[in-house]
Amino acid sequence: MKKLMKRYGWQIMLGIGLLVLTVVLYLVHFLIFHDARHIFIYLLGDIAFIPA
After folding, report:
1. What 3-state DSSP class applies to 50?
2. What is the CA radius of gyration of the chain?
3. What is residue 34's predicted lDDT score, i.e. its pLDDT?
4. Any alpha helices (H) in the chain, and if so which ranges?
5. What are phi and psi of 51, to 5 degrees?
6. 3 state SS of 49
């Protein structure tokens, strides 16, 4: 595990940071518009573009 963090540490931290930023932005969007259905529809659409 230590070797993995040493080799890929910044990529893992970047990924975690981007995930946290995504959650925060979706939360802000919900607090402004109060429409969870809209958020989930576009979330599914965005996930569809993640390469396999």
Report:
1. coil
2. 15
3. 93
4. 2-33, 36-47
5. -65, 145
6. coil
Average pLDDT of span 17-27 = 94
Q: Is 39 exposed, middle or buried (CB count within 10 Å of its CB: 0-12, 13-18, 19+)?
A: middle
Q: Would you state the structure tokens that stand for residue 37, as one six-digit string?
A: 């259905």
pLDDT at 52: 58
* Residue closest to 45 by CA, chosen among 4, 29, 37: 37
Q: Rounded to an integer, what distance in angstroms lies between the CA atom of residue 13 and that of residue 26?
A: 20
- Is the distance from CB of 23 to CB of 14 less than 8 angstroms? no
Read off the pLDDT of residues 27-44 as tens digits, 9 standing for 90 and up: 999 999 999 998 888 888
The better pLDDT of the pair 47, 29 is held by: 29
